[in-house]
Amino acid sequence: MQSAIDRLEPHALRVVVTWLGAAALYCLLATVAIEATSLREGIATVWPANAVLVAMLLSQDRPSWISVLSGGFVGNFAANMLTRGIPMTPLFFGAADLLEVVVAVSLLRGQTRFNVLNSPATVGRFIVAAGLVAPVVSGLVGAGAATVVYHKDFASALLVWVLSDGVGLLIFTPVLLAVFNGDYVRSFREQSWQERGEAAVLLALTAAMATLVFFFAHRPLLFMLFAPVMLVTFRVGRLGTKLAVMLVAVIGAAATMAHRGPISLVTNDPAQQAQLFQTFVAVLLLTCLPVAAELSARRRLTEELAEREREMSRRAATDSLTGLRNRAAFEDSVEPLLASAREAPMCLLALDLDNFKRVNDQWGHHAGDLALVHLGTVLRAHLRERDIVGRIGGDEFLVLLPRTSANDAEAIAGRIREGMRRTPLSLDGKTEILLTISCGVTCAKPGQDYHSLVRQADRALYLAKDAGRNAVRFVA
């Protein structure tokens, strides 16, 4: 009983936090949108509040539909009552907004979390679902409420609703989704200080250009905003694109609602100004988001190709049975060290399994493979991080010991030999085989090449074999 309660408490806490977060964020954004863009009448010019609920539901592995939607409805009701004070409006507008959220999330959500800028295809899907279908469905209810309550023309109200909600979802959903998913935090941690500084400068440049164009320019210079946003897209990436577009939209909306900027030069009608601004933002989004998605897809493809190339290189350099370096990779690793070694001593071990053919003949080749893997495991256990080990062929292994004296090299070889003796190989959980090794030890002379050093270690290995196996011998 207590364990059930313990499991229930974290879940109940998450439900409460989700509900409070949805209600508070929705109320805040809705209040700001109504106050700033609609003068408390009719439909807001830009409606970012629904993006909160859409982003929350898309970011959750198991969407908390009831918590998010009920919290959003309470936030919607509170914002409308605070700003408009008409009880009927919150009910109709709240129902329409929740319908929009459900439609958008249902169209976008699949088996995994939705990434807006994952590819051009996902951008197209996002634009159609969030920028068109969901706002149209909800707009039929919202425009009807605006017609009844505020005596607006239904067709005009529907157009404003679709544009305001569509632009709001398209602008704010990607940013909020990245925030809720922790993408911005991860990106910040992964970036260098130089990359962070560049991103900050480019975003500040975008904000400054938007402020200049919308508040201070006396000519319609909207085209100038595409340059900084595209620069952010290419230099910072998709997360930067989301922020850059949102900065332009927020600054532009503030200027347009204050009847300032290039759009106010075209017409004095607030409704037409709102529609022109919404059209501009839509064009900006349709231009930048697909480019950001394509760049993101190409960057991801480049990373995948690089990872595959690294994996192929690793496989080409690795013995498939033991996971150690193969002959070519061992030689490539050792030769540069020999060429650069002048002062520090360097030793080489040559070792193999005693009576390896008998293991294959008596227990089969599978047992022989297990014996080789077992030797590789023992070698890893008794070698240092700087030591280089490889399987050269058959049951022959070589180990390079950098910065190691002859006495230390013989001691390491002795520990490996003793480790094999004390660790029998278990074939099937019942049968155990006691394996031994013979090991030759030698040290590199100044200027000695790789092949000469290997031949020297092999002579020491033959001496160990001649001594009756299970032995270590040194050749100077």
Task: Outline the structure in words.
It contains 17 helices and seven strands. The chain is α+β, with helices and mostly antiparallel strands. The protein has two domains: 2-310, no CATH class; 327-475, Reverse transcriptase/Diguanylate cyclase domain (Alpha-Beta Plaits, 2-Layer Sandwich), CATH 3.30.70.
What about the largest sheet? 5 strands, mixed
- The overall pLDDT average reads 86
Portion in beta strands: 5-15%
How many DSSP-defined strands? 7
Molecular shape = elongated
The count of domains is 2
What is the string of helix and strand elements?
HHHHHHHHHHHHHEHHEEHEEEHE
Tell me the radius of gyration: 35 Å
Number of helices: 17
The largest sheet has its strands arranged as 2-3-1-6-7
* Helix content bin: over 70%
- Determine the structural class based on helices, strands and strand pairing: alpha+beta
Summed up:
This protein is of the alpha+beta class. Helix content is 70%, strand content 8%. The protein has 2 domains: 2-310, no CATH class; 327-475, Alpha-Beta Plaits (2-Layer Sandwich), CATH 3.30.70.
